[in-house]
Amino acid sequence: MSDTPLEIGPDPTLLLVDDDEPFLRRLERAMEKRGFDVQAAGSVAEGIAKATARPPAYAVVDLRLEDGNGLDVVERLREKRPDARIVVLTGYGAIATAVAAVKIGATDYLSKPADANDVMQALLAKGDDLPPPPENPMSADRVRWEHIQRVYELCDRNVSETARRLNMHRRTLQRILAKRSPR
């Protein structure tokens, strides 16, 4: 990575698409402080509408949204603005989804929780420069715990269904859920 400061460029427009409202608002404020002209959307439909009406130079799109797949927003934005730099965010760091995101036009792929500095590095990285590794990456235990919590919430907090989907014994899952989150 070069030592030159990151520059936004002449067009500072940024579209953020995420259905996690608190995360979306925090990231929106943080990116505005860094000089971006931010539009926020909480759904695939809203993201596509904003990408079509005013195609931004930059975009940060969550992969899984309540009303569909964030890759639909990436595709539409790529059609409207081929030079846009797009970062896909997800709570599900998987090789297959990363490959799919890059194939349809994403510039980079970050796992949640990503902070504004990680997003900024990914959006503004030049050429083949890779952003530096995160200063404080999540521990493997924390990643596992986050994944279990996410599946538990998606299963409407049903322990038996969550255990079945995670291929885990119900009692083991109950013990994990009863503990505090690892650091």
UniProtKB/TrEMBL annotation:
Annotated transmembrane regions: none
SMART domains: REC
Family matches, as InterPro entries: ActR_PrrA_rreg, Bact_response_regulator, CheY-like_superfamily, Sig_transdc_resp-reg_receiver
Domain Response regulatory: 13-127
Modified-residue entries (4-aspartylphosphate), positions: D62
Keywords: Activator, DNA-binding, Phosphoprotein, Transcription, Transcription regulation, Two-component regulatory system
Its biological purpose: Member of the two-component regulatory system RegB/RegA. Involved in transactivating anaerobic expression of the photosynthetic apparatus. It is a transcriptional regulator that is responsible for activating expression of the puf, puh, and puc operons in response to a decrease in oxygen tension.
PANTHER family tied to this protein: PROTEIN PILG, STRESS RESPONSE REGULATOR PROTEIN 1
Protein name: Photosynthetic apparatus regulatory protein RegA
Recorded name of the encoding gene: regA
